[in-house]
């Protein structure tokens, strides 16, 4: 597979919820991409869904509730997940959202940050920079861990 194929795979993995850039950076490196290529591609891919989530998720949730009860249950779970983080984001504002996105643990990340911002109806111009900086922070943390892991393995 050529470098463009590896870049595309890394980009697509970074857009997937749960995997996001925490999985995409090591995937890119595992396919032989340089660390910085994996990081830049993963950051870009991780950020692509964010504005769409922030702008459209409430309307999608309304539609899902109308379509079926099973979809309504999914929406309830997603809103409950977002509301678990509400206190931190309310208390710390910009920095609370930044930390939520930056700490690369399960249940955090750009998708969760965008969902929390949308559910809380945070202003786009406030939430987007916090999420962007959080993604950069997560990329730094994951890069350090990934680079160390690959250096030990080689």
Key structural traits:
single chain, mainly alpha, 9 helices, 83% helix, globular
Structure description:
Helix 2 (20-30) packs parallel to helix 9, helix 5 packs across helix 8 (110-119) and helix 7 runs parallel beside helix 9. The longest helix has 30 residues, at 124-153. The two termini are 22 Å apart. By secondary structure, the protein is mainly α. It is built from nine helices and no strands. The model has no long low-confidence stretch (mean pLDDT 92). It has one domain (3-153). The chain has helices spanning 3-15, 20-30, 35-47, 49-67, 69-84, 86-92, 94-102, 110-119, 124-153.
Give the helix/strand layout.
Elements: H1 3-15, H2 20-30, H3 35-47, H4 49-67, H5 69-84, H6 86-92, H7 94-102, H8 110-119, H9 124-153
Quick rundown:
This protein is mainly α.
Order of helices and strands: HHHHHHHHH
* SS summary, helix count: 9
Overall 3D shape: globular
Rg on CA atoms, Å = 16 Å
Number of domains: 1
Portion of residues in helices? over 70%
The proportion of strand residues reads under 5%
Distance N to C terminus: 22 Å
How many beta strands in the DSSP annotation? 0
Largest sheet: none
**Average pLDDT, all residues:** 92
Structural class: mainly alpha
Task: Give the uncertain stretches in residue-range form.
Answer: none
């Amino acid at each position: 597979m050529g470098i463009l194929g590896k870049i595309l795979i890394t980009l697509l993995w970074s857009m997937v919820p749960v995997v996001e850039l925490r999985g995409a950076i090591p995937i890119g490196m595992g396919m032989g991409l340089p660390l910085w290529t994996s990081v830049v591609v993963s950051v870009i891919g991780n950020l692509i869904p964010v504005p769409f989530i922030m702008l459209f998720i409430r309307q999608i949730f309304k539609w899902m509730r109308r379509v079926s009860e099973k979809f309504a249950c999914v929406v309830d779970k997603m809103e409950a997940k977002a509301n678990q983080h509400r206190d931190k984001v309310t208390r710390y504002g910009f920095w609370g959202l930044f930390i939520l996105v930056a700490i690369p643990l399960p249940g955090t990340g750009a998708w969760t940050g965008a969902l929390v911002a949308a559910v809380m109806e945070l202003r786009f111009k406030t939430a987007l920079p916090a999420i962007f900086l959080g993604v950069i922070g997560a990329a730094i943390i994951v890069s350090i861990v990934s680079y160390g892991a690959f250096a030990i393995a080689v």
